[in-house]
Structures are given as C-alpha cells and as structure tokens.
C-alpha cells in the first residue's frame, strides 16, 4: 500500500505501511504498524490542490496550472502536463476498466470551470476540453462503466456528462456549494454521494430513484469516501470522524476528536487477499496523518455507543505541513517490495550523506587544532631522534637500544643514522624522506658552490693580469 498526501507548502509526501495490522485489538503485544515515509517531493510551485491514483500511476494538480505525473511501479517522475484551462488544477479522477490494473483515461478540472479528458499512459494526450462550470471545478468522479461522469463546481451546480459524446446530459442547481461527489463502488455505480455543507446525500443514478438517504453532521463536513459493506466514511471541520450505514443512514461510529484540527482529507486503504480489514487514513490541517481500523464497527452494523473509544489509532505520523489532499494506491506485493527496497536505499543513502556531513563538520571545526597538533608531534619526533643521534656521535658509538615502538609512536634509535653530518631516519615516512633528500641536495649544491668559489680565488691569485683587466688590483 502506498499513501500520498499533498500540502499547502507544495510538497507531496509518500508513505508505506510497514508491519501487519493485528486483527484482534485485545492482543496488546502485537507490533503496531508504522507509516514509513518513502519520499518527500516538491511537486509544484504552489499549493498541491488534488491528488489521484490508479494502478501504477499517480497524478497531482497544483496552483501552478500543471498536472504532475508519477510512476509508482518504477519509482519515476513522468513530468508535467500543461492544463488547457486557466488557473489551478483543482480536481483529478482516473478511469480504470473492469479487470484492468492500469487506467485508460484521466479527467482534470480547472479553476476557470473547464474539464479536460486525457489519455492515461503512453503519450498522455489531451483528447477533449469541455466547458463544465462557470466557476472552479470542485470535484470529478467517473462511473465504473466509463460512460458517464459527474462534476460539481463553485457555481453550486451538479452536472452529468456523456463521455462518449462529450456533452452535458443533466444539470442540477444545488442549495449549497458541493465539496465532493463519488459513485458507489460495490453495486456497479447505481448510486452516488454528494457532500454539501453539513449534509451528505445519497442519490440513485436513475432519475426516478431520486434521494435515497441523508447523512447529517453537526458541523460542516469536508471529505467523504465510500467504504466496503455499503458504508460511508466522513470527516468534519471539528476534527471528528464518522462511519455511516449507507442503506439506513444510521451513524455506526463517531470519533469526536480524531484530530485536534479539522479533518481535511481521508482515504481508504485498499483491501488485499491477506488483509480484508477496513482501514482509513485521515489527514488534518495540523499536519498529522492517522490510520484507523473500522472493521469491527462496520461488521456490527449498529451504533457502538462508546463515542469511538474502542477504535484506537493504529499509526500516526506528523508531516509538519498543512495537508490538503490524500489518495491511496493499491500496489501488488512485488511492486511493494521494489518500492520498499528503493525507499530503504534512499533512506540509507540519506543517512550516509548525513553522517558524512557530520564528519566533515567535525573535521572543519577541529581541523586547525588537529593539524597543528600533528605538526607539533611530527616536529618533536625528529628533534628527539636528532638529539639521540647527536649524543651517539658525541659518545663515539651507537645509542642504547630501545624497545620497538608501537604504531603511532617514535621510531627506535637504531633507525637513526648520521651521514655527512645530516641526520637520516631509515623508517621515516615518505614525506620526511623527501625533506631529507631536499636537504642533502641543498648541501651538495652548497659544497659545489664553495668549491667553485675557491677555485676562482686560486685562479685569480695565479694570474694577476686577469684581475687587472677586470678592474681589480692584484693582491700584494
């Protein structure tokens, strides 16, 4: 499972669920799952407005008029799409045919009210752009058949679209601006949920069915999602989280203080063959992401009456960012292993880089002192050995033998010899040997210069005429 969360600070956070969620809450010794961060990416130049996932792909819409694409399977950044509309990309939705893993189409909505249809995968070409609303598009959803779509906008309108013909087939004026709209998943999309203010209304797709159920909240609801078992999950601005029976409209569970701030977004973690529990991830404006297990409450099918006390938070992370949107991706086990391996490799590389930076900072802070210290020790060693050699020469013999020096200590006296008045260290390091060679070369040059000067003086003394020609008087 991969969980993606967008923020006001333009960052997209990626998480993996590590560890198994223990089905029996009474087992206290069971290891709790951990939401392990896999990446943090600067997705846009502005606010991340929306995020959607399908198969191996993920897309984000930002305030910079761009759609950012990702390949979750291969852990790649696919680049950007320039939105045909003007203003921020405010809504995204994928369509995946029945039995397929990857989507075939993507729909996007913009701040200018336009809606675009894209080819998903391959060239990601824009197939058509529709004038959907007079104001910003708030949300888009595609029917499981792929034939129709619903959109809601800030113009307080709900519209149904024929995706085959590319035109609007139904328009409804809403009393309150809608925040979200979603088709049901388990019954083939025969119903859709509409979130407006403090109320979630469930409607039948067929015109004669009309309003089926109403889910009322004490405070304004900000997010919702269909859940398996004919259930609906919703989050409110007062920080509460609720589970509803979509058939009867009964509130099955309410967690009054799921977050200290408003529940801005939520996502259902896809069930797998080894884990069929109802896991819900919620994101708040305070930057926290929490994981909840609603399996028991959904199975009972009746109000719990404990105020959500029996539903504990399974995992929690803090992003230090104001979250705006969230989506969960269903990755096969092979993809999860590759993604986890890549995440571990990135984490290990980051740790090594951090350790290298610390070592570099320590060396930079203490470098001059250590360097001077090394010089002092290196200078003391030859001086001490030179004194020993001088004593040996003055005494007419070799210095007394000393025990072999350990690594890092001064060389024994037997490794010191005097050649032509120059102290040499047989076991000296290469740098000292080079200095010794330079000293010997300088001394040899000095001897040659002295010899040449002596020869010149002797020649001048033997030939007085040569000295007179040079303007010098011969020596008396």
TrEMBL record:
<dbReference type="Pfam" id="PF00400">
    <property type="entry name" value="WD40"/>
</dbReference>
<keyword id="KW-0690">Ribosome biogenesis</keyword>
<feature type="compositionally biased region" description="Low complexity">
    <location>
        <begin position="378"/>
        <end position="393"/>
    </location>
</feature>
<dbReference type="InterPro" id="IPR015943">
    <property type="entry name" value="WD40/YVTN_repeat-like_dom_sf"/>
</dbReference>
<feature type="compositionally biased region" description="Low complexity">
    <location>
        <begin position="450"/>
        <end position="463"/>
    </location>
</feature>
<dbReference type="InterPro" id="IPR036322">
    <property type="entry name" value="WD40_repeat_dom_sf"/>
</dbReference>
<keyword id="KW-0677">Repeat</keyword>
<keyword id="KW-0853">WD repeat</keyword>
<dbReference type="InterPro" id="IPR051959">
    <property type="entry name" value="PAK1-Kinase_Regulator"/>
</dbReference>
<feature type="compositionally biased region" description="Low complexity">
    <location>
        <begin position="402"/>
        <end position="413"/>
    </location>
</feature>
<protein>
    <submittedName>
        <fullName>Uncharacterized protein</fullName>
    </submittedName>
</protein>
<dbReference type="InterPro" id="IPR001680">
    <property type="entry name" value="WD40_rpt"/>
</dbReference>
<dbReference type="InterPro" id="IPR020472">
    <property type="entry name" value="WD40_PAC1"/>
</dbReference>
<feature type="repeat" description="WD">
    <location>
        <begin position="130"/>
        <end position="171"/>
    </location>
</feature>
<feature type="compositionally biased region" description="Low complexity">
    <location>
        <begin position="345"/>
        <end position="356"/>
    </location>
</feature>
<feature type="repeat" description="WD">
    <location>
        <begin position="256"/>
        <end position="302"/>
    </location>
</feature>
<feature type="compositionally biased region" description="Low complexity">
    <location>
        <begin position="431"/>
        <end position="441"/>
    </location>
</feature>
<dbReference type="InterPro" id="IPR019775">
    <property type="entry name" value="WD40_repeat_CS"/>
</dbReference>
<dbReference type="GO" id="GO:0042254">
    <property type="term" value="P:ribosome biogenesis"/>
</dbReference>
<feature type="region of interest" description="Disordered">
    <location>
        <begin position="345"/>
        <end position="476"/>
    </location>
</feature>
<feature type="repeat" description="WD">
    <location>
        <begin position="214"/>
        <end position="254"/>
    </location>
</feature>
